[in-house]
């Protein structure tokens, strides 16, 4: 099963948008994500519909932030990108009549639901701005190392 990376990709894009001077085109974002511009527009549509980004048309246009990253939580972005699965499929349906499979699936389902509830609560506490500041700190350390070495 392929991993769904919409959430991490959009968080990546939002931080780039915030740190970029001016709009970013779908093509530029697509190159950054190693995908196609149509995929980028589709992913950004949910963020646009929620008012987190907007697109500016015409020469020099592109995508820009419409919301401060400190007001935008990971939960907001998660919901805007369509609430992709948080976990890979752990359950099986090889033999639905098997009582062992039923017990295993019931235990795993309960544990995954509890984990999802906790994870979504954490997403609601963490802002994209906090991630951006973490990036800034990492970038500063790399720059410091380049200057010192």
TrEMBL record:
Keywords associated with the record: DNA-binding
InterPro entries: Tscrpt_reg_Rrf2, WH-like_DNA-bd_sf, WH_DNA-bd_sf
GO MF annotations, alphabetized: DNA binding; DNA-binding transcription factor activity
PROSITE patterns reported for this sequence: HTH_RRF2_2
Record's keyword annotation contains Thylakoid: no
Gene Ontology CC: one annotated term: cytosol
Name listed for the protein in its UniProt record: DNA-binding IscR family transcriptional regulator
